[in-house]
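TICKET #2291
ISSUE: user wants both folds in one file
ATTACHMENT 1:
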Amino acid sequence: MLLVTKAILSAAQPNLEQYDNRVLHFGFTLATNLGRAHLNVKTLELPKDTLRQVNAKVFPGIGLGAITNLHINDNMDIRLMAPVISFVQRNLVYQFENSRDEVKIESAYCDASLLFKYKSARRKNTRLYVIGGARMSYDFASTIKKNRGLQDPVVSLNPITYGWEAGVGFDFYFEYFKFSPELKACQTFGNAMYRDGFIFTNYIQSISPQLIQFSLHFE
């Protein structure tokens, strides 16, 4: 908030006027996220003492990464966000007839995103932009090789996933750097669940991980 306020106060004095004309520039990003999972649960006639309901819980996470930005023209950049390390948690709550289990799904992603950034005309020290593109993630914390059983519930996601992301943000130009708050949504393609043959995955048709991410870019 302090950075945004300073940018507004200094709007009468243009900063970094040639910055966006550089062919290549670099930066880093700090991010917070909310990890959730879209569940497709099988609809079955369930006998007594079996599963009644499955719900996904949302948890906050954090991320840190690098930015490489390629200038195309006054309104378009190509942006590589890699590597970005993100820590994400999504829990599944299983409600049985006479019991309740909560299964943690914790992920430590190494992400790489290739994005197109479309920018509005610059107004003194401010620009609005929209961004979108493709994302690949590798989960270092994947539990597909972990021991599991009826008394040891584990739900695993495949370690490599692909998806899309899209968002909106503002560029604020300061005397020595550019600061950009950005809000972005990320969606995984298809089913990311690893099916292991136990009850905790048998009643789920698919899990599609999702992410809402708020980032602060410094370039």
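ATTACHMENT 2:
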Amino acid sequence: MRNEIQQAALISGIGILVMVLSVPIAEFVIFPELIDYNNAENTFNSITENRVLFITGIFLHLITLICDVVVAWSLYLFLRPVNRNFSLLVALFRIVFATITLAALLNLVSVLNLIQNSDYLTAFDHSLYSKALLSVKNFNLQWSFAFTFFSIYLILLGALVYKASYVPKIFGILLVIAGLGYLIDTLRSFFFPAVTMDYIMITFFGELVFMFWLLIKGWRVQVLEDGS
């Protein structure tokens, strides 16, 4: 029977894998088909005609948020032998990220409310299309802001992984690099939105590489050190 640490590694790997599969479908397949950021009316009509698809995108994000909580908990257990308090702090940063993202996701839920009551609302408000598109933009902005906390989470996670004797140190380094990449890109989107830094996306794969290790070898580790 696998011990708690091994089970936590496996759960973490599976949770990250589900997130890796869920978010890209919503953000790169579903939403681009429905949202035209230059035309509020087209966006409103497209979402109205493809309501189920839009809801699917919302729930894919919701599944990801649930996995965020699960992964925060399981990685806390996995890395607790290194330093219990520091591992808890790392988990809390991911929980904060998930909480802010959930609040951002409610903007997309509000779009559904506008669509479902469009016949009633248009009689009193002719800016309905603009409100729907603004809600979508609010989601993107608030989700982007949440990545500030995710960036710090990855940096701290990398430091913790680097200290773990049962995890190759290269994964700690890759996670720190990923966190710095996310942080730079997030700050750029707020302070220098006109600047393009597509090349920095190469740094984002640290958590993905760590996921593969968790799924392939992490669930078989032998932990010898005690938490502090």
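RESOLUTION: both attachments delivered.
EXTRA DETAIL ON ATTACHMENT 2: The first helix runs from residue 4 to 34.
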